[in-house]
């Protein structure tokens, strides 16, 4: 049974984009199976970003987000390959159980919590 996953990679910012792409191809090739010969369903290169804290003495990283579909048993080999690659600073793989979030502009009605008329009852402010 195949499942949908999402992975965020943070690569060393000194790597060229071609080097990052080569690593991604190698990692994602480990996920291929007869049901899903092309496991990656979406990929987004976010580029170089400042890290929230130093990681291995580095303050910037190259971010990539990928969505893929594979057998859960194949994740172990992929994670092993990622951990052995010194160009990967951090990564996180999560199970994608829902629809992709809809991007909204800050302050739009969808972002604000719904106001309940009962909220003001008994409020003495």
Q: What are its keywords?
A:
125 residues; four-stranded antiparallel β-sheet; alpha+beta; Alpha-Beta Plaits; globular; 18% helix
Topology:
Elements: E1 3-12, H1 17-29, E2 40-55, E3 58-70, H2 75-84, E4 88-95
Antiparallel strand pairs: 1-3, 1-4, 2-3
Per CATH, what is the topology of the domain at 1-84? Alpha-Beta Plaits
Principal-axes geometry comes out as: globular
- Going across the major beta sheet, what is the strand order? 2-3-1-4
Cα-based radius of gyration, to the nearest Å: 20 Å
The average pLDDT value, as a whole number, equals: 84
CATH top level assignment of the domain at 1-84: Alpha Beta
User: End-to-end distance, in Å?
Assistant: 56 Å
Tell me the β content: 35-45%
Low-confidence stretches: 108-115
* CATH architecture descriptor name of the domain at 1-84: 2-Layer Sandwich
Structural class: alpha+beta
What letter string, H or E per element, gives the SSE order? EHEEHE
The biggest sheet amounts to: 4 strands, antiparallel
Number of strands: 4
Number of helices: 2
Give the CATH superfamily of the domain at 1-84: Ribosomal protein S6/Translation elongation factor EF1B
**Helix content range of the residues, please?**
10-25%
